[in-house]
Design a protein that fits this description.
The protein has 639 residues and is an alpha/beta fold. The chain contains 24 helices and 22 strands. The chain has a 7-stranded parallel sheet, sandwiched between helices. Strands 8-13-12-9-11-10 form a 6-stranded parallel sheet, with helices on both faces. A 3-stranded antiparallel sheet has the order 14-19-15. Strand 21 and strand 22 form a beta hairpin. Helix 13 crosses helix 15, helix 17 packs across helix 18 and helix 22 packs across helix 24. The radius of gyration is 31 Å and the shape is elongated. It starts with a helix and ends in a 7-residue tail after the last strand. 36% of the residues are buried.
Length: 639
């Protein structure tokens, strides 16, 4: 089997051998065992589910939260001649239907799906009929409520196992502590505990922490002295834009990236950076998951991460090609206070969270008992302006409401056009319509069910093809129907969305467990303290600290982080001091000597010689006979 796997690896990917732990993980999966694989960023995770699928009958369901990653993976597999599809919120129902049918009746080997799609009827009905050989869960730490990036939609993953009871689960993550690892296996209904841990050390990556007063000046030194492309992480969108502008003024090829940009603009900037047209991308943490650029030479954290998990993920995007690269964390004197306030701000009082829930529902005009399983465009800036609330407070409240499965906030989502008829089917035919309008209406009714009872996603391109019209013409017809009060129409857009996981509840029925709230807050404070400890450390190898944090106790000092290099310098200077003292003793063995003569005989800097003599005086090994004359102390007097 190993030879067969290596042959396929070379055929499709061009690799001659496996990376560390890859074969062990693949063997575990092929033996039918549920497996949790802890692999560092850039460790070749996708190979561990793609290879076993290619040597097995059936398809692999890959669950990942990132639409961009899905598209990228599907494109790469298709380029290699491997059949793969993806379903996500950016697709129309028609396209999802076709993709899922191909998984049931076609020869599709990989189905990439966003976790929120797992609960839909359209997916569940098809999944029962699929020949699923493997369930791969990427970014598996998102399933743990104790993880730094918990997503309630991940909790539905275990339900798929009912449709494929014989298919093993492969959970993949680059950042899981012991507590989170146990939670992952429990939530994914592992039959047995099975963790395969790859070393978290990155031999080619130099971790550095610098305490600086002028961060920009230090950033410019890095940008000008380290060749290749880089990422600079900044906490806020505003800071991100400002820093990119400062770099441009200094003549650097730079741009910014954050979730507030339209999806097309984000994709364009990401592509320009990946292709080398932009050298430095200044970004919030919205940038990076699923980014696969091998030659990133430096990752700079201009502002500190609030957890070791996110820092390791982001720093690990440097040097995936195995060449020397740098992960720099900059710290200013007041950073710890700012970060501490931010941690506290992530947990508004429970009563304030309930109040924000009520205000959001009122803002979106959702009545009590209404809204279940519906989505709403949500302008968080406008909402905060009207309610006189801080954006971060609202975002934190939404995060806690999502953890309790009341509502979910998506910062920017690619939303297909949506339509609902405001008139009944009988009344619709009383309206006088042009041939063009009637053609579009009849096509929609034929292609989409339920248009009279709820908002349905439609694909304007598909309607255009079916009616022999352009997409713009279809768009104009839909706007005309909307102005005539026949339909409600939401054009395709990229905007923040609120998803109501259940109907709006009266405030008295909204429950957020104080125990769970308190424990999560403790966990976040603990992660923050670990990050501060990493930044303040001056004695232990940074790579060892990171590895130990994730449960890898076998790590050895890397030899090239700032702490290891400082330890080497200190050891070298100690050796040098001992050598200088030895040469002084050899010179004074001939008799007393003035300081000038000692300096002439001993090959070292004058200050080094002076320091050595004072140490020897303190220890009683030499005696100062006159202000400038030294001699060895009598043997019996030496210490």
């Amino acid at each position: 089997m190993r030879d067969k796997l290596l042959a396929i690896l070379k055929q499709y990917w061009g690799y001659e051998s496996f990376r560390e732990s890859q074969y062990e993980i693949i063997s575990s999966v092929l033996s039918g065992r549920d497996t949790l694989a802890l692999m560092p960023t850039g460790g070749g995770k996708s190979i561990t589910y793609q290879l076993p699928t290619l040597v097995s009958e059936g398809l692999c369901v890959v669950i990942t939260p990132l639409i961009a990653l899905m598209k990228d993976q599907v494109d790469r597999l298709r380029q290699r001649g491997i059949s793969a599809v993806a379903i996500h919120s950016g697709l129309s129902r028609r396209k999802i239907d076709i993709a899922l049918d191909n998984c049931v009746y076609g020869d599709v080997k990989f189905l990439y799906v966003a976790p929120e799609r797992l609960n839909s009827d359209i997916f569940r009905l098809r999944a029962r009929r699929m020949n699923i050989s493997l369930i791969a869960v990427d970014e598996a730490h998102c399933i743990s409520q104790w993880g730094y990036d918990f997503r309630p939609s991940y909790l539905r993953i275990a339900e798929i196992r009912r449709y494929a009871p014989d298919a093993p689960v492969l959970a993949l993550t680059a950042s899981a502590t012991e507590l989170v690892s146990k939670d992952i296996m429990r939530n994914l209904a592992f039959k047995d505990k099975n963790v395969i841990r790859t070393s978290f050390s990155r031999p080619n990556l130099s971790y550095v922490v610098r305490e600086v007063d002028d961060k920009f000046e230090h950033l410019m030194r890095i940008v000008r002295n380290v060749e290749g492309t880089g990422i600079v992480y900044v906490r806020t969108r505003e800071g991100c834009e400002q820093l990119a502008e400062l770099l441009k003024r200094e003549g650097e090829s730079a741009n910014f990236y954050h979730a507030g940009l339209p999806s097309m603009e984000r994709a364009l900037r990401q592509d320009e950076w990946r292709e080398g047209k932009t050298r430095v991308i200044v970004a919030t943490n919205a940038f990076g998951m699923g980014i696969d650029k091998a030659d990133v030479r430096f990752v700079v954290h201009y502002t500190m991460s609030d957890s070791m998990e996110s820092y390791y993920q982001e720093a690990g995007r440097a040097g995936r090609d195995g060449k020397r690269s740098y992960a720099m964390l900059m710290v200013a004197p007041n950073d710890y206070k700012i970060l501490s306030r931010r941690v506290e701000g992530n947990f508004p009082p429970i009563e304030q969270i309930k109040s924000i829930y009520e205000k959001i529902c009122a803002y979106l005009m959702i009545a009590i008992g209404d809204g279940a399983a519906r989505s709403y465009v949500f302008n968080i800036q406008d909402f905060c302006y009207r309610e006189k609330l801080f954006v971060q407070t609202v975002v934190s409240a939404l995060d806690l409401l999502e953890r309790n499965e009341y509502m979910s906030y998506v910062d920017v989502a690619d939303n297909p056009a949506r339509v609902i008829f405001k008139v009944s089917r009988d009344d619709l035919y009383k309206y006088t319509m042009s041939d063009t309008v009637e053609r579009v209406v009849r096509t929609m009714l034929r292609m989409y069910n339920g248009l009279f009872t709820e908002f349905r996603a439609i694909d304007e391109e598909v309607i255009a093809a079916a009616t022999d019209m352009s997409r713009e013409q279809v768009h104009q017809v839909l706007r005309e129907l909307w102005r005539s009060q026949i339909i409600r129409y939401v054009p395709a857009n990229s905007s923040p969305m609120i998803y109501m996981n259940e109907e709006r509840l009266p405030l008295s029925s909204l429950y957020i467990s104080p125990k769970s709230y308190g424990y999560r807050k403790e966990q976040m404070i603990s992660r923050f303290e670990a990050m501060v400890g990493y930044a303040e450390n001056t004695t232990e190898c940074r790579s060892v600290i990171l590895s130990n944090y994730f449960g890898d106790s076998s790590a050895e000092p890397c030899g090239h982080c700032d702490v290891c290099l400082a330890n080497k310098r200190n050891a070298k200077s100690e050796d040098s001091a001992e050598a200088v003292e030895k040469r002084i003793v050899e010179s004074l063995n001939e008799g007393e000597l003035p300081l000038r003569e000692i300096a002439r005989r001993v090959a070292a800097k004058p200050q080094t010689i002076t320091d050595a003599l004072y140490r020897m005086l303190d220890r009683g090994e030499v005696v100062l006979r006159e202000p400038d004359i030294f001699m060895l102390a009598p043997t019996e007097g030496r210490k």
